Amino acid sequence: MTAALLVIDMQVDFCPGGALAVAEGDQIVQGINALMPDFGVVLLTQDWHPAHHSSFASSHPGAVPFSEMQMPYGPQTLWPDHCVQGSPGAAFHPGLNTTRADLIIRKGMNPAIDSYSAFFENDRTTPTGLEGYLRTRGIDALTLVGLATDYCVNYSALDSARLGFATTLRTDLARAIDLDGSLAAAMKGMQAAGVQMA
């Protein structure tokens, strides 16, 4: 198999001190860097929202962060403003070795729809282009690391497995938000989908 390392959303806003911080999010950076030489292809995703994105609680008067509302594509968690295009918070963690990146996939750019997965927006049909890139490069296996285990990593892993890629999650190199049991649910769903845990 030809394997690639998929590094999900290792950005300032998702690390301690950021707008949507994941506990211990910064503690996996060096481990991710150390893993990169084991892979011929390294891919990074980057949340890249326009200001006033529809997934921001601030875009809906009276809404509070981490509440949920119905969007045309289904239920959507409303987040604090984060990873706004060009902002310091949208930058990759300064310790991350970005020079190894063969490709950077930016997601969440459509102001009307969020995008957790590296493969599809949250309507589950609009592609990011990652699948086509992997196919043309002859990559058939992915190892996922990054933030957050129960959201963007989870959605990316599920799509990877569904699309037929041999998919592995390095649980030691991922961290979760864990809203109301979301981590346990995500782990159960990934295992049921055939994602290997390492």
List keywords for this structure.
198 residues, alpha/beta, two-stranded antiparallel sheet, 4 helices, six-stranded parallel beta sheet
Summarize the structure.
This protein has 4 helices and 8 strands. The protein is of the alpha/beta class and 198 residues long. The model has no long low-confidence stretch (mean pLDDT 97).
Strand pairing plus helix content: what structural class? Answer: alpha/beta
Low-confidence stretches: none
With helices defined by DSSP (H or I, 4 residues minimum), what is the helix count? 4
Question: Sheet with the most strands?
Answer: 6 strands, parallel
- Main-sheet strand order equals 5-2-1-6-7-8
Please give the alpha-carbon distance between the first and last residues.
Answer: 17 Å
The number of distinct β-strands equals: 8
Average of pLDDT: 97
